[in-house]
Amino acid sequence: MVRKHAVLMASCVRLAVGALGVALGSAAAASDAFPSKPIVLVVPFAAGGPTDVVARALGQAMSKDLGQSVVVENRLGAGGTVAAAFVARAQPDGYTILIHHNGMATAPALYKKLSYDPLKDFDYIGQVADVPMTMLGKKDLPPNNAAELVKYVKDNKDKVTLANAGLGAVSQLCGLLFEEAVGVKMTAIPYQGTGPAMTALLGGQVDLLCDQTTSTLPQIAAHRVKMYGVTTPARIKALPNSPTLDEQGVKGFSMKVWHGVYAPKGTPPAVTARLTKALQQGLKDPVVAKRLDELGAEIVPVEKQTPAGLQTWLKAESGKWQPLLKTMKVEAP
């Protein structure tokens, strides 16, 4: 009886090991075959917007390395959370991925009922590029430099209007950071996207807008706005003669837009590794480098173009922004 039981147990073990081997073999085969069809790169913002422009340049370059099309799909709504939630629920096979900016770090503080956890519900592929921001004023705003702007804002306080592209937009975050730096609360005017906010500034309906160089460089070059400073600690290649806010007296002011690429949690490691390789190869593409350079964007160092690089950065940014937003009581209605 004992012998029969032992034989039965041994048979069960062999079957289990065999089944596991088949499963692992199938998973390995699937990973080896990846990708066998087009990949969807989900963008949380409108076509033609700053993140969309970066996504399309990157997707085209990644497709060359992957041997499959990378199709950009725009899913708008709720400061990027609609797109992030969609990807978090997607099949974890590498065929649906997300590109997102600082909003991945700020969403938990802005939305009480967030349906996903940015730190737990995604696998990481890597960072892409950093985009500096610029503080702009309407053409006839009296101040001529950042020092004069700070004085003007303090003298006029809530009479000064500050446009942004909506809740959670980087333009809103930059405005909040500027308010904290100068110690004055201005009147925020939210718009449905970067385009309408810029149109309002150009039309003189609002006084100020802080936004990405991907959107602001053409207006600066055409002298349609007043340029008060770059938001990064050092001057940028795209605007070498434009001083930073920090060097003009707004000490410690530092704000940039960063982009990362994510996959749903549970994506096979071999698949995420393949996507990371395609990301890194794509960022070496001279066409991509030239396009991002034209937009004032700066490709991140290769050590950040990795899952570990993105994960470390997201944790750090979450720790920076979430306490600030909660202190300032900024959240969705």
Number of H- or I-type helical stretches = 11
CATH class of the largest domain: Alpha Beta
Gross morphology: globular
Structural class: alpha/beta
| Gyration radius from CA atoms, angstroms | 23 Å
- The CATH topology of the largest domain comes to D-Maltodextrin-Binding Protein, domain 2
Order of helices and strands: HEHEHEHEHEHEHEHEEHHEH
What share of residues are in beta strands?
15-25%
Helical amount: 40-55%
Signal peptide: 1-29
Organism: Cupriavidus agavae
Keywords: Receptor, Signal
Family: Belongs to the UPF0065 (bug) family.
How would you portray this structure in words?
The chain has 333 residues and is of the alpha/beta class. It folds into 2 domains: 167 residues, Bordetella uptake gene, domain 1 (D-Maltodextrin-Binding Protein, domain 2), CATH 3.40.190.150; 117 residues, D-Maltodextrin-Binding Protein, domain 2 (3-Layer(aba) Sandwich), CATH 3.40.190. The chain is 46% helix and 18% strand. It has 11 helices and 10 strands. Strands 1, 2, 3, 4, 5, 6, 7, 8, 9 and 10 form a 10-stranded mixed sheet that branches. The N and C termini lie far apart (70 Å). Keywords: Receptor, Signal. Belongs to the UPF0065 (bug) family. InterPro entries: BUG, Bug_dom1. This is Tripartite-type tricarboxylate transporter receptor subunit TctC.
